[in-house]
Amino acid sequence: MLDQKLIRENMAAVREALSKRNFDMALLDEFIAADQKWKTAQAGLDTLRAKLKAASKTKPTPEIIAENKKLSEEIKSQEKDLTVLEEDQRNRLLYIPNLPDESTPIGKSETDNREIRRWGEPAQKDFKVLAHDELGTNLGILNFEEAGKISGARFVVYHGAGARLERALINFMLDTHTGHGYQEVLPPALVNSKAMTGTGQLPKFKEDLFACDKGDDFYLIPTAEVPVTNLHREEILDGVRLPICYAAYTPCFRREAGSYGKDTRGIIRQHQFNKVELVKFTRPEEKTR
């Protein structure tokens, strides 16, 4: 979530940066309006509090006591109103995304991405190259029918070498990154709404999440980024500890709402998949290291 102070003090720069993300500026304007209402209400409340404080220092009379009682009741009422305004302000702020890095290419789709570097060249085959799902099915290492029977669409059962390959890739990635200074962590796959809000999944992407419906405030994680980033939520980290580097394997769960018709074959857009995630806590000036 963006810092409110950043938006207030750098409005033009924030607008320009968000425009590069093709962001709906109406959402930013709604936050600005809500923020202004909050500031006006806060100023009015501060005035009332100051007035009550000054009155409390005078010699009490029946008139002053009655006036102070009236002020106290008005302050309580405005405090409740301010709480509502703060919640509205915060909820609108949650819909504003992070600002893109200056090096990010400007574009409307993946076709506007730039190729930064290339390693090797694609091998030329003298035979028909099969799609991964067809090849996996022919080899007996991927079974979509079994997954459909026990779970439904967008799931797969790995068999034999397929299951071993999946496990080997997870271990390979963890071993590679821990060998480069990352600490391995194994977090829970169920998190609460505060964690989901902390990394921006809530409220914007609620429709993409699998939520437990027993009223216990649990969500299945869409990525290890959620629990790992929240390890230090509501903490002030000592700079001498930075950078803090984590590598985490978790299963991930996504509804993939809105993706129907896109990459529906094979294991590209599954409701459940395995992933190794890297998370680094570092200073902004050292972000590319």
From TrEMBL:
Matches recorded under Gene3D superfamilies: Bira Bifunctional Protein, Domain 2 (3.30.930.10), Serine-tRNA synthetase, tRNA binding domain (1.10.287.40)
Superkingdom of this protein's organism: Bacteria
Gene Ontology cellular component list: cytoplasm
GO molecular function: ATP binding; serine-tRNA ligase activity
One record GO biological process: seryl-tRNA aminoacylation
Compartment(s) of residence: Cytoplasm
Recorded catalytic activity of this chain's protein: tRNA(Sec) + L-serine + ATP = L-seryl-tRNA(Sec) + AMP + diphosphate + H(+); tRNA(Ser) + L-serine + ATP = L-seryl-tRNA(Ser) + AMP + diphosphate + H(+)
One Pfam family cited in the UniProt record for this chain: tRNA-synt_2b
Domain spans labelled Aminoacyl-transfer RNA synthetases class-II family profile: 164-289
Family from the record: Belongs to the class-II aminoacyl-tRNA synthetase family. Type-1 seryl-tRNA synthetase subfamily.
Name of the featured protein: Serine--tRNA ligase
Organism this protein belongs to: Candidatus Termititenax dinenymphae
Name of the gene this protein is made from: serS
